[in-house]
C-alpha cells in the first residue's frame, strides 16, 4: 500500500510540474511567434495611441520597466472583449490613488473607451490586460498621458492544476508597504519570487506568522469546515470579493481570521484566487500536505459557482 501511495504521489507531482512547464512554454511561444500580441497604448484625448515595445518582452513587469510607476489593475478578457467587475477594478484604482495622496482624476469614460478599442482589435481570442496610472508621464515615449493600457496573450491555467492542485511556498522577506493600495512598485519587487519547479506561488506572512496572501493572489484555507481568508493586511482582490460573496450564498461558513503557519497541518483544503486563475486548489504548503493531498469539495463547490457567475456577469467596457 505504501509503495502504491508513493507512486501515485510521484505521478501527481510529475503531472503538476509538466503543467507548470506548459504555461511557460505557451507564453514563450506566443511571444516569439507574434510580437504584435504584446501591446502598449497611451490613453489620450483623441483615443489610444500605440507605444513602442522593447524586444524580448515576456511580462508586464518588463513592459513597464523604466517607467515612473504608480497604481494599476490587472485583469483578463472573456469572450474577447468582455470583463468581469470592471467597475470594481476602476474604483480600486481610484482608492489606491487616494491612499497615495494623489489629487489626480481618473477619466473613467476615456479608460473604458480605450479598453474597449484595444481589446476589440486584439488579434488573439483572449488577453491579459493591465491599466496603469503612472506617477509621471512617459515623455520619452512621446506621450504626456499618465494612463496606459497593456495587453498580452492570455492562456488559462491548465486543467491539470485544478484537478491535482498546486504547491506553494513562503516569501519570508516580501511585504506590502500599503496593502490596501495596488501599487506597481510591489509588482516589481515580487519578481524575485517567480514560479519555479514545483512551486506555483509564494505566500506573504505577518510578523505573527499569519498567512496573508500570495504575491499575486489571495489565499484561503478551510479549517474545521470554515472558509478562512485574511481580512486585514491584504489587497482587497476583486476575485476575492466575488469568492466571499459566493461562499456566503452557498451557506459556507466564512471567517476573516487568517490561517497561521502553525494551523496548516490541520487544514482540510486551501486555495488561491486571482483574475486569471479563478479559485485554484492548493494541496501542499511548504512541506505540509493539505488535507488528503487532493482538491476538496468546498473549494470545488465555490469554483463551480464562480464559473457560473462569470458566464452571467461579464460585459464589455462600454
Structure description:
Strands 7, 8, 9, 10, 11, 12, 13, 14 and 15 form a 9-stranded mixed sheet that branches. A 5-stranded antiparallel sheet has the order 2-1-6-5-3, sandwiched between helices. Strands 4-16 form a two-stranded antiparallel sheet. It has helices spanning 2-33, 60-63, 86-99, 108-120, 159-164, 184-189, 238-249, 297-313, and strands at 39-44, 47-50, 71-76, 82-83, 127-133, 147-153, 166-170, 199-205, 211-214, 218-223, 226-228, 254-255, 269-274, 278-285, 288-289, 315-316. The chain is α+β, with helices and mostly antiparallel strands and 318 residues long. The protein is globular, with a radius of gyration of 20 Å. The longest helix has 32 residues, at 2-33. The protein folds into 2 domains: 34-155, Aminotransferase class 4, branched-chain amino acid transferase, N-terminal domain (D-amino Acid Aminotransferase, Chain A, domain 1, 2-Layer Sandwich); 157-315, D-amino Acid Aminotransferase, Chain A, domain 2 (Alpha-Beta Barrel), CATH 3.20.10.
In short:
With 318 residues, the protein is of the alpha+beta class.
Number of domains: 2
Model regions low in confidence, pLDDT < 50 over at least 5 residues: 1-35
Residues in helix, %: 25-40%
Top CATH class of the largest domain? Alpha Beta
What's the SSE pattern? HEEHEEHHEEHEHEEEEHEEEEHE
